[in-house]
Amino acid sequence: MDSGVLRSHVDDGRVYRTPAARRSPRRLSRVVAAVAAGTALLGAGIVACGSNEPKVAIPEGIPPGTGSPTPPIDINAPGRSADQLADWAAGLSDDIGIGTTALEAYGYAAAVMAETLPSCGIGWTTLAGIGSVESRHGTYDGSSVDAFGQVAPTIRGIPLDGGPGVAEIPDTDGGAMDGDPVHDRAMGPMQFIPETWLKWGVDANGDGRVDPDNIDDAALTAARYLCARGGDLTAAAGWQQALMAYNLSGDYLALVRDRASAYSVGVRPD
């Protein structure tokens, strides 16, 4: 969830919110053309990594690259299984601007899907792109992520009350999860509404709870949802379908793509 007015759409209980970004996504028209054609563009956007460092070419088109591969792990290890990715995450965190715990969560979710549903092919970079847009990796508005993946203070979206540019979704959980007994609100670092969370939510950190405010649980839930919606996310058409299911907006797709592509080559997004 970026700052700015949120424009909402709904499909199967998922709220699709398009952030009013401070600037237009990079080369949006070319991305849309690639989406329409169902093929990936291969080009080079240029960003500066530092005053004394060479510029790095960021690939265009969809799907974005899958980035630095995660090492083999036991996805069923006791406790917080994502901790096995601590060294991998530490080696990337500073360069791409994602906290290590959030990065471990994205990497673990991708590893779980690679083992349990290899036909999907979702990369951790896609999850990181979504996490960046939705909540700045769990740090929106002063929130932070602890070593167990818990986000506090909790992140809640605006009331979905049918106001200008906002879908109207009456309360579905009695306010038990989102704190609003009148209208639903999107929850947590990946911004699910209660109805969708109840259908797709999963415990990813082994604490026995299915918690939208835990970035491990939220990242794996998002991965499951995207794979179910898009099928083969290594194909342009599948990745597009998954992202448009998550948020029905070409602007949103381009923004996630831009950020995921930057992560894929080891740099921070513009």
TrEMBL record:
Q: Which part of the chain is the Transglycosylase SLT domain?
A: 186-230
- Matches recorded under SUPFAM superfamilies: Lysozyme-like
Q: What is this protein called?
A: Lytic murein transglycosylase
Q: Which GO terms describe its biological process?
A: peptidoglycan catabolic process
Top-rank taxon: Bacteria
Which CDD domains would you find in this protein's record? Slt35-like (cd13399)
Task: Return any one Pfam family short name.
Answer: SLT_2
**What is an example of a GO molecular function annotated in this UniProt entry?**
peptidoglycan lytic transglycosylase activity
